[in-house]
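Model: You mentioned two targets. I'll fold them one after the other.
Researcher: Yes, keep them separate.
Model: Target one:
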Amino acid sequence: MQHRISRFPIRWIWPLVIILMIGAGWLTSSIWLPALKGFVQSSVAGFRSSSPEMGHDHEAGADEHAGHDHASHAGHDESSSLELSEQAIRNIGLSA
């Protein structure tokens, strides 16, 4: 005596798993969502406080390095330096 097991189409497994996971997330959101919001807010606040624009004690137009010759540094080692092309300088935003 053979029993025929009805087969659930395999192509429906992944969509069903995704729908079940979305439903489980929605049902449990009251547990994890407040913690996630707190984490995001503290992370954003941390990034804002460590922003390079904040905390400067000099005027916006003042340049600490004005008048220095940046090309001749004492102890400059050619083996650990790079020479960038104009395109590379523009790509990383070092010039306008």
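Model: Target two:
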Amino acid sequence: MGVVIKDDLGSLQGVDGAVAFKNWSGIPFALGIAVFSYEGFGMTLALEASMKKPHLFPRVLAQAFVLITLLYIAFGLIGYLAFGDGTKDIITLNLPNDWSTIVVKAGLCIALAFTFPVMMYPVHEMVESKLVACSFYQRKIATQPVYDRLLLNGIRVIILLITGAIAIMVPVFGVFVSFVGSTVCAMLAFVFPAFFHLQVFKNRISTWQWIVDLVLIVAGIAFAVYGTYSTCSSGVEQV
């Protein structure tokens, strides 16, 4: 990240002619990307469960969100001031082809190799829990440790191949990120937590908590619908 900022600062063009909101209709598209950038919230429950002192998790989460948000704002602002409307979906495409860019790309690959398995852990856990509960698995596979390990590892490989194929086939990275942020991430971040909170604590929460949950559900669905429409429209134009 420091190398990217260094190259950005070396390419600063200033604010002359820069327009903060050149296209207001593109705001939902940008918000979809912003929501996607916090895709790690899917790991919050697993992280809280693994903490030595889970009661400190809300404070740690709030501090992490503030720090990450400030980093995102600074990173995006400096990148836009450096490259303006020529800013690419992936910022490394704007960097000069020198050793520092190679280091950044290598670092991203290494980071992906270590973080992707962590992000896929909930997916594997859900798929494997369904498989283990299957009667056929319990009769034929569970009693054979070798076959059991081969099957579970094979399913993980298939899931990884599917995600890799999707990544390769995506023509416009920014549109795909915004689409995922406007659909899956928006539902996970706003709609589902509020809905489940209402279902579990509906008889024990105050009227204001009901209102907050309902507002989150309605706003989340509205954002998902309009954000998806805006993203699809932008995708058609770019493709």
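Researcher: Noted. Anything on target two?
Model: The mean pLDDT is 82.
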